[in-house]
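Record 1 of the preview.
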Amino acid sequence: MALPLKKSSCCGYVPAPPVGTPSGEISRIDGVAIYITGPLISVPSERAILFLTEGHGIHFPHAQLLADRLAEELSCPVIAPDLHNGGGFPMVKPADWDEEAEMAKFLEENHPETVDPILEKVLKFMSTDMSVGTWGGIGYCFGGRYIIRLMAAEKIAVGVVNHPSFFTMEEVEDFGRAKVIKTFGVSKGEKNIEVKPPLAIFAAETDSIFPPVKRRAMEDRLKEASATWMCATFSGVNHGFSIRPDLSSKAGVVAWQGALKGAVTWFNQYL
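->
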């Protein structure tokens, strides 16, 4: 008899998606599948958002609807690349689904050596084909780690991570040393100044993958680095709440909406 799927895991329980039909499309750039949504890419954009999914990937309707919402709220393109080369977790789990074994397999197949080259192709596409002036990044669970890594490499100007998973404190420390160029002023008064890239974190009260001890250690590193950051933790929700929300729960709805609105505010403030 199969064990019940855990709400707090990356690869287990999947609630029904929010109501709606995804409005973006699946395309390919340099061999990488992407979900792209928002204003036409034929028109140069001052800003765009790189959207890095959790383990269910870019075909996950929860992720597509969330990317659509961000594109609408921010009035800019949102690009979500397939980080898993067509793999990832299925929405409907078979009866014999073994969460621990599947997670171990997933991490063995998906890691910086496989993901970083994909991101390089997508960032090149955003810079050249889309003529994006500057871009921010948002990551969920697995994708959160790669937002931190890209910010540490000074390739993303502004970042948001939701219940980030599997990152290291060394990566956080690398991020703490990063700087990006920000233009201040208008017309003849413009100045280019190096600033710390701003990072917002949205976390769940109950999360075995991003537990309180790791969250506080991350906050300590950010404080020591004098980084520009914020962290909001929502009660009554589990890991995955901001992309796989439990809409039957008031706490789930409040946290899901809070993380989304918080991300929009963060990007509007800094990007």
